[in-house]
Amino acid sequence: MGRTTVVPYGVDFSPRSQPRSSPSRPLRVLTVGAVGLRKGSPYVLEAASQSNAIFRMVGSINVSEEARAELSKHVDLLGRVPRSKVRRYYDWADVFLLPSICEGSATVIYEALAQALPVICTPNTGSIIRDGEEGFIIPIRDSTAIRERLIQLEDNPDLYEAMSEQALSRYREQGSLEAYGERLTQSIRDAFQ
Question: Has this prediction a pTM greater than 0.90?
């Protein structure tokens, strides 16, 4: 019987040179991906409607006009943006949020790590995030957990800065193409030993 090895991929996304400082204004929260149920958009709406953070979503909008109108009351919906322009939104953000219900391994989380953003995601994102290290892993369909984690980051500048530093480190160690190449090579070697 053979073995199976999961080798998380990496992305080629030029990382920031240093971690972020804790902001002295309300947090800016970014979600990148299709706006719809699969990406957890209803829970972004619930969290945004009860938070003083500023929310922005980048990606194709796959919801009804009624849902779009409701989202727009609390979230800046930017729609589809060319990949070449997405980085400016990571630069704008303080926190990356991806409350996906169903996902493979979200490239946008690797990009967020490269930009030293603490990440809030679900276990269903297939990410390399470690709970309490680079951010938080929250249960699916839990807008209360999103709000609580945002408050935690906002109220604790040392935690925010530690997570930003850890996010950048995690990208370099696990999320870059170079790290992926090393893991893949090692997996192949291990398979033939």
Answer: yes
Identify whether the C-beta of residue 59 lies closer than 8 Å to the C-beta of residue 159: no
Digit-coded pLDDT (tens) for 50-98: 999 999 999 999 999 999 999 999 999 999 999 889 999 999 999 999 9
Cα(32)–Cα(56) distance, integer angstroms? 9
What is the residue-averaged pLDDT of the chain? Answer: 92
Counting Cα atoms < 13 Å in the Cβ hemisphere of 48 gives 24
Residue 174 has pLDDT above 90, yes or no: no
Closest CA to 134 of 153, 162, 154, 106: 162
Nearest CA among 96, 108, 98, 118 for reference residue 164 = 118
Hey, how many other C-beta atoms are within 10 angstroms of the C-beta on 133?
16
The 3-state DSSP class for residue 11 equals strand
The 3-class SS string of 161-175 reads HHHHHHHHHHHHHHH
The total of other beta-carbon atoms located within 10 Å of residue 148's CB is 15
